């Protein structure tokens, strides 16, 4: 396997896992309809979490790279309807975002739907337009998706926040679970930014069933599921008039003192200055 010298270093525990292609991962564990649970752990714990897991897990590898830069631009109504639905724990809700895979320049328009049973259903299409607005194609896709889910589409959606982070994706060979390992999270809104502490990792376990082997290991070490949303935390911290009680404990644990700092330049990957950095 060749290594991209410009790629961020991978922890020893993750680097020991077998490289897997995206096609192989999707064949084993696409998990588009799934249950998602999040955990916050020290960065030093990741090695031990996956130590000795070479026979059970692989890691997404593309062109020798295993750590990838993601950037998500979230679209919401002017009164932040999707934010409030998420914060309030509404049983049926949605998020709309444009996700940019920075290393390849690929963009996808995604709609994440949460059903009454707590199941997440993600649907998406390839997208070549600007990240901070809907096009006629994405507008139709959003409307059709929401109506098919029994929801009324909003009249207006505009860019409300950007989150940038690095991600490594680990998948069990059995297809039982898909674990994303996120670091270096930075959220942007209205000319301000807030970042995650460098000693903290956000794990998200995606599965169709109950507790996975990874989660049982997390529980053995005292880590429990947390309520956390990258989008929700960004908006809550950078909008003083709002409160995020649903995520307060996790935000306190992982965000860098919750002190917003001015953005001296547009978000490095998205550059959606007109909508978010004025």
TrEMBL record:
Record InterPro entries? CYTH-like_dom_sf (IPR033469), VTC_domain (IPR018966)
Give the superkingdom in one word.
Answer: Bacteria
Q: Which residues belong to any copy of the VTC domain?
A: 34-238
- Matching Pfam families, A to Z? VTC
* Protein name (Swiss-Prot/TrEMBL): Polyphosphate polymerase domain-containing protein
- List the source organism: Nocardiopsis codii
